[in-house]
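Input record (one chain):
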Amino acid sequence: MCRTGQQPDPHEAGDEKTSSPAFAALLEDSAEELYESAPCGYLSTLMDGTIAKINTTLLTWLGIEREAVVGRKRFTDLLTVGGKLYHETHFAPLLRMQGEISGIALEINQADGGRMPVLVSSVIKHGDTGEPLLIRTTVFDARDRRAYEEELLRGRKAAEEARRQAEADRARLQDALAVLQQSLLPDTLPKVPGVETAAYYHTAHPDRLGGDFYDVFPIDGKRFGFFLGDVCGKGPQAAALTSLTRYTLRAAVLHDPDPVSALTTLNKVLHERYAGSGNPRYCTAIFGTLEPDPDTGQVAVHLASGGHPPAIAVRADGAADFLPTPGGLLVGILPSARFTATTTVLAPGDMLLLYTDGITEARTGEDRTSLYGDEALLDFTAAHAGQPPPVSIQALTDLLHSFGDGLDDDTALLALGVPAPNPPKRSAR
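The corresponding structure, as predicted from the sequence alone:
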């Protein structure tokens, strides 16, 4: 007991510990007993490897008697065939050069035929004049470590198999999504007399369905319909909305091919279908008709837009401009929506380009913070004026690819153009 307010004397506490029976027993251990019963194996060999001394711990691991080892075997005789080869080619040369070596993984043979993994460290003892006298070696039991390594290897193999399975599942999912996505787009565009057509669809995320769509189809003997748009959202719900939108527009034209009437019908269908679900769905769309005139070679275009970026009219002389469709609301938001029609005429060499906002909202610049923008797209199409739709679409496809990871939204492109007259052939001189 110490007095109140005083700290106990550490020496007194130490005296209590050193007087304990366990400490007394520890003091009775001789150096020889500590050597023989150490938790690791010890052996000393002559410079040629002949074993001169070995402790009981290592003999127990080996399962052999001391008389069968000391003076009769070399250290390499305790090793497996692979261990012997490694000792001769790496262990022994490094030990001679460095004077010591540590933590080398080897295996020793046991009398019952087993193999025991060990970690071996050796050091050369030198005499007073510097000559090497003997080699002292410490052998540590590595069975727990080997079990840990094997368990770790099994874990890695399981993780690798899981990764391969996940990649295979993802590939199958992407294939299924690609097939479903393709079913929402026309396989081929129909031949339109006096008009060339081309389209391209870029999927930003192969793991999910996109919501962009386009189509070209015959209405009657002289007119063709076309549309392009973008539904809200991604995934299965967007796919269902895309399918409903495409078939509604096609069906609406059978009753009235007027673009404003077609979008009005679509608006009514979408609003009635989704307004009461608590999850309103909508889309943006451009719908139009083409009426080629075989006598003049021109094509009359009537179109209307529901909240979609304006189409671009590219003229053969290099001029390009947006076709304004003011007042076009998002399709499906309100029970009744106002749409405005516009008209234009495509002459030989002219082209009409429809697109979704994936291209104009692509992130550009080194920091990927600037948007490509409407005006940049207008300038780009003007620079390719006079080219047929397939060539223009290919140029736009290359542009999309140049955005790299800055293009993070799906993009649909549709070009409708009137072929330019063939240039006169020059006569050969």
